[in-house]
Amino acid sequence: MIQKISQAWTLIILANVIPVVIWVLMIPLASRWSDSFQIFTNLGRLTAIVGYTLMATTIILATRLPLIEKQLLGLNRVLINHHRLGAISFILLLAHPLFLTGRFLSSSTRSAALFLLPNLALWPQFLGTVSLALMMALLIITFYLAWRYQIWKFSHRFLVVAFWSASSIPLLLPAMFRATWLCERIY
């Protein structure tokens, strides 16, 4: 029984660590922590990567696949883990824009404040703001309003919309794909 759970958790941890390892290998670590701008940028990226992969994990746990239920010893354990990982994901995704905003604090508090507002000229930032706002609204509804199960379940489906909206952000960031370790090997 314990072996089943540890195998499932090993797979979950591995699936969430692999993107971090790829990110670490993309650019030399020394250049990532050279000044406050780089530190805030990379903490922002790291919280986004881990938060996003944990959100993907919570979506997979929410599918209620019999194999997952069997590995985690029942639906109740799956839902408890879904809730815990979802909370960690949410905290990391909330920290992501705050770290990115920190890049601008040394130069201008106005620039930092403006960074938090949706900006149609910057699509990745706009999609991130919309995704996070949608996620926050849905989770507030989920935690604080007592709805019938069917309505609650229906509202939960919109979290997938926030997830897919956030999925497009890296595709709009050319810096993430320029001369990276992974792309050099693929292309």
TrEMBL record:
<feature type="transmembrane region" description="Helical">
    <location>
        <begin position="126"/>
        <end position="146"/>
    </location>
</feature>
<protein>
    <recommendedName>
        <fullName>Ferric oxidoreductase domain-containing protein</fullName>
    </recommendedName>
</protein>
<feature type="transmembrane region" description="Helical">
    <location>
        <begin position="12"/>
        <end position="31"/>
    </location>
</feature>
<dbReference type="GO" id="GO:0016020">
    <property type="term" value="C:membrane"/>
</dbReference>
<keyword id="KW-0472">Membrane</keyword>
<feature type="transmembrane region" description="Helical">
    <location>
        <begin position="85"/>
        <end position="106"/>
    </location>
</feature>
<dbReference type="Pfam" id="PF01794">
    <property type="entry name" value="Ferric_reduct"/>
</dbReference>
<feature type="transmembrane region" description="Helical">
    <location>
        <begin position="158"/>
        <end position="177"/>
    </location>
</feature>
<feature type="domain" description="Ferric oxidoreductase">
    <location>
        <begin position="47"/>
        <end position="164"/>
    </location>
</feature>
<feature type="transmembrane region" description="Helical">
    <location>
        <begin position="43"/>
        <end position="65"/>
    </location>
</feature>
<keyword id="KW-0812">Transmembrane</keyword>
<keyword id="KW-1133">Transmembrane helix</keyword>
<dbReference type="InterPro" id="IPR013130">
    <property type="entry name" value="Fe3_Rdtase_TM_dom"/>
</dbReference>
